Amino acid sequence: MSAKGVANQKARFDDLASANNLTINEKEQFEHYLIAIDNLNAKLLYFNFSSEEEDVKVIDLQKTKTARVDMRKTASMKIRKVSLFL
């Protein structure tokens, strides 16, 4: 990804965090995905930049009833899938 694209993603992330009054404690970016957590407000911020139309979600973890993590190994990597049920 170009430096302009990365800067654009960072600006989009910062705008959404600010608009939702989030204090991000930790964030992680991998490939076209970015996740971040606000521990104080129990919010999860999710970005999927992999397609033309980005997928963005702010999830209130206090409303989450169940969470499940599924792990799958392939020859070259581990894949984790997290499912949240509201």
Q: What tags apply to this protein structure?
A:
86 residues, 4-stranded antiparallel sheet, two-stranded antiparallel ribbon, 6 strands, flat
Describe this structure in words.
The protein is built from one helix and six strands, in the order H-E-E-E-E-E-E. The chain has one helix spanning 3-19; strands at residues 26-30, 33-38, 43-48, 55-60, 66-73, 78-85. The strands form two sheets. Strands 1-2-3-4 form a four-stranded antiparallel beta sheet, with no helix packed on it. Strands 5-6 form a two-stranded antiparallel sheet. The chain is of the alpha+beta class. The mean pLDDT is 84. The protein has a domain at 3-61.
Report helical residue fraction. Answer: 10-25%
Q: Kindly, what is the distance between the CA atoms of the first and last residues, rounded to a whole number of angstroms? A: 34 Å
Number of strands: 6
Q: Specify the number of helices.
A: 1
Structural class by helix and strand composition: alpha+beta
Main β sheet profile: 4 strands, antiparallel
* Strand and helix order: HEEEEEE
Mean pLDDT: 84
| Strands ordered across the widest β-sheet | 1-2-3-4
What portion of residues belong to β-strands? over 45%
Q: In terms of per-residue confidence, which ranges show pLDDT below 50 for 5 or more consecutive residues?
A: none
Shape: flat
